[in-house]
Design a protein that fits this description.
The protein is an alpha+beta fold. It folds into two domains: about 80 residues, Glutaredoxin (3-Layer(aba) Sandwich), CATH 3.40.30.10; about 100 residues, Glutathione S-transferase Yfyf (Class Pi), Chain A, domain 2. It has eight helices and four strands, in the order E-H-E-H-E-E-H-H-H-H-H-H. Bound molecules: glutathione.
Length: about 210
């Protein structure tokens, strides 16, 4: 199995980088320079026509979309138990949570951070305000789920949902209401921030903020 990850520090590639470290598999890492728009270079657009990260080259073929990559890696390395197998108890919750994070929460962050670039800059303020409300509603929902004191998003073991949710929580750190402002989410994140793989990915990506609270 061979892996080559294209990413950029603190972006959507972080969750994939983290899972690769957790899996302990060899991989090559290419950090793209967003300042020089390397993600829009012809060479990179051949791998990822959207010009976004992450892209993971899996045995020579590019795969995009962070959540899909996480689920693929979990499936290819079942010994790590980062997913819930078809037919196993908790499978529905796993699928529901992954799709909720990827389909509802992550695009709202895209709108928050890229309102000017992705659409008409004149309407960007309204887009950002709506995105903020959607992001806050999502953390409200996740907070309610964590209220039963479970250690991880899906119960008592770490899954791909934790890789994705923790990265998304990190992105809220400078927003009007950071994810850490919800009581149960904060308790969860305080535990996750002790995770050796998450700490290592912060170190490798040169990120000193947020990881220590
Ligand atoms: N749905 C995609 C979103 C990827 C995405 O928006 N990545 C951002 C960084 S977080 C990016 O590459 N931005 C550079 C750009 O749009 O030019 C995923 O989950 O992989």
């Amino acid at each position: 199995m061979s892996y080559v990850l294209y990413g950029s520090p603190s972006t959507a590639s972080l969750c994939v980088h983290w899972m690769l470290l957790d899996l302990g598999v060899p991989f090559e890492l290419h950090m793209l320079d967003f300042a020089s728009r390397e993600q829009r270079s012809p060479d990179y657009l051949r791998l990822n026509p959207q010009g976004r990260v992450p892209t993971l080259i899996v045995d020579g073929a590019p795969v995009t979309e962070s959540a899909a990559i996480l689920m693929l890696l979990a499936e290819r390395h079942p010994e790590a138990r980062f997913d819930v197998a078809p037919g196993a108890p908790g499978r529905a919750a796993y699928l529901q949570t992954m799709v909720f994070l990827a389909n509802s929460l992550l695009p709202s962050y895209r709108n928050w951070f890229y309102a000017d670039e992705d659409g008409d800059p004149e309407g960007a303020g309204a887009i950002r305000e709506r995105a903020r409300l959607q992001i806050e509603a999502a953390w409200e929902r996740i907070d309610a789920e964590l209220a039963d004191g479970r250690a991880f998003l899906l119960g008592d073991r770490k899954t791909a949902a934790d890789h994705l949710a923790t990265m998304l929580a990190r992105w809220s750190r400078n927003m009007p209401r950071a994810a850490t402002r919800w009581t149960h989410v904060k308790a969860y994140l305080d535990r996750m921030r002790q995770d050796p793989g998450l700490r290592e990915v912060h170190r490798r990506e040169g990120l000193a903020d947020w990881i220590d609270g």
